[in-house]
Predict the 3D structure of the following.
Amino acid sequence: MTHRHLPLLLLGIVPFALGACVHVREATGDAVAWVRDALQTTVDAPLDRTVKATTKALKNLQFAEIAIKADALSGVATAKTARDEKIEITITSVTPVQTRIDIRVGAFGDKPVSQRILSEIQQELRD
């Protein structure tokens, strides 16, 4: 490649780099992001309350084989859909009053089911 082609190469790369920066910025705060086949967001609730809301949400949605493991800093909730797809929800304390939730359904992610689970968790947190 000659030096003449370098500016064209850079022009092709810059939009992707800037787009990635914007996406990262949008994924912080109260936003919901779809990252690596998982739904990610941060809620304004402590970890223990979020774990309880997640457990109740999974029960409300009638998923099978619900299991919860949690300590003072993080937790993992697992369940199965009627189609035998694994649901894994990772719950991580960000601050004493904020918790990050990562929801993955199935091997490749199921966005509508993930969004429904998140909606149910948020409803439980409001109650």
Observations:
- The longest helix spans residues 6-26.
- Confidence is low (pLDDT under 50) at residues 14-29.
- The chain is about 40% helix and 30% strand.
- The CA atoms of residues 24 and 106 lie 24 Å apart.
